[in-house]
Design a protein that fits this description.
The protein has strands at residues 2-3, 7-8, 23-27, 40-46, 49-55, 61-68, 75-79, 82-87, 91-96, 101-106, 110-116, 119-124, 128-133, 149-153. By secondary structure, it is mainly beta. It has one domain: YVTN repeat-like/Quinoprotein amine dehydrogenase (Methylamine Dehydrogenase, Chain H, 7 Propeller), CATH 2.130.10. A hairpin with a 2-residue loop joins β7 and β8 (82-87). The radius of gyration is 17 Å and the shape is globular. This is SHKB1 protein. It comes from Podargus strigoides (Tawny frogmouth).
Length: 168
């Protein structure tokens, strides 16, 4: 953490891991989240495995869980207090802080992503842009899969290689 009077201070040290950390995601504020008003979260990943910790204001950390995506991760980040993992192989994983549930969903291979508010947008190689409202964590009633909605489809099916979204 950064304080004006003393500069950078160490807040948390993870246990020693048996693998190289390839991705790190930090959520600095979780206002009104299921983990408490002042908790912070940090996630690390290597290949297909993710470890998520909750960090308390006293500097202690507790492991929330170890999650598997099943394919190599390309990105690891937070949207609000939901942890998101994506893979170019066409999988997304979402950890919901309210339900404390890890959900993996198969999608079309992902080329790009962006977050806008509570929406996760995925640019895919079939020319489609899909979105998920990760705050509501919508699940389909018939099969309990994560509801991934197609927002746009390019008529020529050119891959969506970059996304940049700004909501006012």
């Amino acid at each position: 953490r950064m304080t004006e009077t003393s500069g950078w201070q160490q807040v948390f040290t993870s246990p020693r891991l048996d693998w190289v950390i390839e991705r790190v995601a930090l959520n600095a504020k979780v206002h009104g989240g299921a983990l408490g008003d002042h908790d912070k979260m940090v996630a690390v990943a290597s290949s297909t495995e993710i470890i998520l910790w909750a960090l308390q204001t006293d500097g202690n950390g507790s492991e929330i869980g170890v999650f598997q995506l099943g394919v190599p991760l390309e990105a690891l980040f937070f949207v609000g207090n939901q942890l998101i993992a994506t893979s170019h192989a066409g999988k997304i994983g979402v950890w919901n802080a309210v339900t404390k549930h890890w959900q993996i969903q198969d999608v079309v291979p992902i080329n790009s992503y962006d977050a806008a508010g509570t929406f996760l947008l995925l640019g895919c190689n079939n020319g489609s842009i899909y979105y998920v409202d990760v705050q509501k964590f919508p699940l389909r009633m018939k099969d309990n899969d994560l509801l991934v909605t197609e927002l746009y489809r390019d008529p020529t099916e050119d891959a969506v290689t970059a996304l940049s979204v700004y909501l006012t």
